[in-house]
């Protein structure tokens, strides 16, 4: 009776599974790195100062940049955050603190469905709702389309982070004589604020790369778009248009724009991690 | 508070140093034809240097899309290379309460462009060859119908990859309008329109997309506006015209295609000039039109649009030739300036 424990077969399975998971991890990590390097490799020629400060050159002529699209994307994201996040935030608070039973189920279920609506449908929805009555494509319409797309994630992440706040904190607040709303706004939300902020930042990063909702809302513009009621250029749409064009220089600019967009998203998501890490540190120490 | 004060300070300084423009900033939005996009994009840029307060924002979403958005009233003007149908005009009248006027701005050509590895010669296409390829009857590059008009060229036995447009397109309209005139089978089976049921082939979005596909796919053929072939160094073939001559698309042969039609130009400018008579005429040419509403709610915008239109028809014509479009015949320009009087703003 000299059978070793664990038996050889289990060890083998262990080794195979471990290497498989390792391989998958490597694939996941290398996919992002490959995309970044590939974008930089193809777009490096176009990445110069003009790219960031100039307007697009007329078709087929060389030079020009995408400054209008960079500004446009920033404006769209700002508007999307302002219009989508408050709704998601309040909805999340409602779900976590007030709702129960039937209404909670309804809100959760419809939010999840909303999250699953194809982004191009969201574009058509806002086209019908905003563009047609206003008789104009606009930054406003694009921002609303992205804003609606932000609601589900803002709502569910807020709810999750609020639920993670211990029940004892709420009871403590109420026991000290604070009303329910005082407890929520001065105790529960501050305790979860870093998590909520992280959720919002990742939410912004998620919609920043959306093209389909913008095609028929923000439309496009080869000039700077003044105010909020004119059509505007945006990075994803510029990438889309330039990538299918036959011009080599536009291809390079599309790669470069992709690199700029992805780098921006990467920075936002790293910032989000930092915010969350800081929150954890504070709540533990 | 401080921020607001700073912003105010910056604004007042900026306005003090900004060049005094005569009028307020006006942005006109137009959409449609990808066929004429290189020209309109050049116009927008030139016009902006002349009138710094006017921005002509032109988006090339395809003629079909341009017509739809014009009818929906979401753009100030449209652009197409296939005239609007009576039904579309009636729909615009009903939905927007205004007539839509066609203004020809230039002439261009659909050229059969190809990418055959190893072939650098300029091919010659008979109408039967083009119709055969697009009907799916001719499937190999070395088919007898293609080979007989290109005796010196060694064509491969490769399968032909047919590329057409996936979106509603005036470039398509011109192409199928021509095919309908030269092939009764095409006329009966497929017909004419800005988008049709293609018997064979794969679709690209816009002239941009089709050019891109031709460049990327070996042994492909597609129809694109002349300037896209030139700018992207894609080979394009001569086409046999109604006099039996093989004609290469260029300024002269496109202008000559229009020459026959100037006398018979209808009052609303909706005219097809494909497969015209004339020994030197390129057979797949077309006018390209701006679609302008007769009434506009915003009179300031209307006034700006009118001035731009006048510029495009007169001074703007000098920018057509460098981009391989043919300028308008002067008779047509005169008629259009008369039509401009109909604009109620």
Features:
heterodimer; A: mainly alpha; MetI-like fold; 2 domains; 11 helices; B: about 350 residues; alpha/beta; D-Maltodextrin-Binding Protein, domain 2; nine-stranded mixed β-sheet; three-stranded mixed β-sheet; about 20% strand; elongated; disordered N terminus
Short recap of the structure:
Chain A has 285 residues and is an all-alpha fold. Helix content of chain A is 77%, strand content 0%. Chain A folds into two domains: 7-46; 63-284, MetI-like (MetI-like fold).
- The CATH homologous superfamily name of the largest domain in chain B equals Periplasmic binding protein-like II
- Quote the distance from N terminus to C terminus of chain A: 53 Å
Q: Biggest sheet of chain B, in brief?
A: 9 strands, mixed
* CATH-level-4 superfamily name of the largest domain in chain A: MetI-like
Please state the overall shape of chain A, judged from the principal axes of the Cα atoms.
globular
Number of strands of chain B: 12
Indicate the CATH topology of the largest domain in chain A: MetI-like fold
Mean pLDDT reading of chain B: 91
